[in-house]
Specification:
Elements (H helix, E strand, L loop, with lengths): L1 E2 L12 E12 L2 E10 L3 E6 L9 E5 L4 E10 L2 E6 L5 H5 L13 E11 L2 E10 L3 E6 L8 E6 L5 E9 L2 E6 L5 H9 L22
Parallel strand pairs: 1-6
Antiparallel strand pairs: 2-3, 2-5, 3-4, 4-7, 5-6, 6-7, 8-9, 8-11, 9-10, 10-13, 11-12, 12-13
Length: 211
């Protein structure tokens, strides 16, 4: 891996400027929000919000749910250049309406517990994943569709959210106030579970079950 001065890049194939495309890097099962700045059939230029930890395996996952094994080639300040382990169909990458979920908010797996306030009761809950707009939680208390709840944790500001779907004990929440991309990136990076290179793709949604 090379360390490059700011502004320098290694280019092996024609690149397509993407401006801002949210994605996540998965390092041994730990998930980190990032922004893809440009892409080619052989690699990506990615902006990080937090340093990438040491890892044995690295994947990039798009909002569509598509995953690609990658390797870090160079680093420069808060950007990294990565190459795909195998050449990809860059048109498929650019058009996120294709894939497992089509285009949706990037979900991040986190390890976080909190207290949920509902109907005069206070019950413990745990987070399965979180996005800018919502979260999937686990609660032993049955919650009502469209019910407004409040959740307090040690890591997040108080959350007010409505229940969008349920498959007890799992519930999808839609936040009343969304997170900024950089805010969610930095908070979620501190809430990653222990490394697990075999982590499977997330099959659930945060704010909705479809898409």
């Amino acid at each position: 891996m090379q360390t490059l001065p700011a502004g320098a890049e290694l280019r092996a194939a024609p690149r397509f400027t993407l401006l801002i495309r949210a994605a996540k890097l998965i390092a041994d099962g730990r998930e980190f929000l990032c922004i893809i700045r440009d892409a080619s059939a052989t690699g990506l230029k990615v902006r990080l919000f937090t340093p990438l930890p040491e890892h044995k395996s690295l994947l990039v996952e798009l909002g569509s749910g598509e995953r690609y094994p990658i390797e870090v080639v160079w680093t420069a300040d808060d950007h990294v250049g990565v190459r795909f382990v195998e050449a990809i169909d860059v048109e498929r990458l650019l058009h996120e309406n294709q894939g497992i979920h089509a285009k949706r908010q990037v979900r991040l797996r986190i390890a976080l517990e909190g207290l949920l306030y509902s109907g005069g009761e206070t019950v413990p809950v745990s987070f399965d994943n979180i996005s800018q707009q919502g979260a999937r939680i686990e609660s032993e208390k049955w919650l009502l569709i469209n019910e407004l709840v409040r959740i307090e944790t040690s890591a997040l500001p108080p959350i007010y959210a409505k229940v969008r779907w349920r498959n007890h004990p799992h519930y999808g929440l839609l936040f009343e106030q969304t997170f900024k991309l950089d805010e969610l990136a930095r908070i979620s990076a501190t809430l990653q579970p222990a490394p697990d290179a075999q982590q499977a793709p997330d099959s659930g949604d945060s704010a909705s079950r479809a898409g």
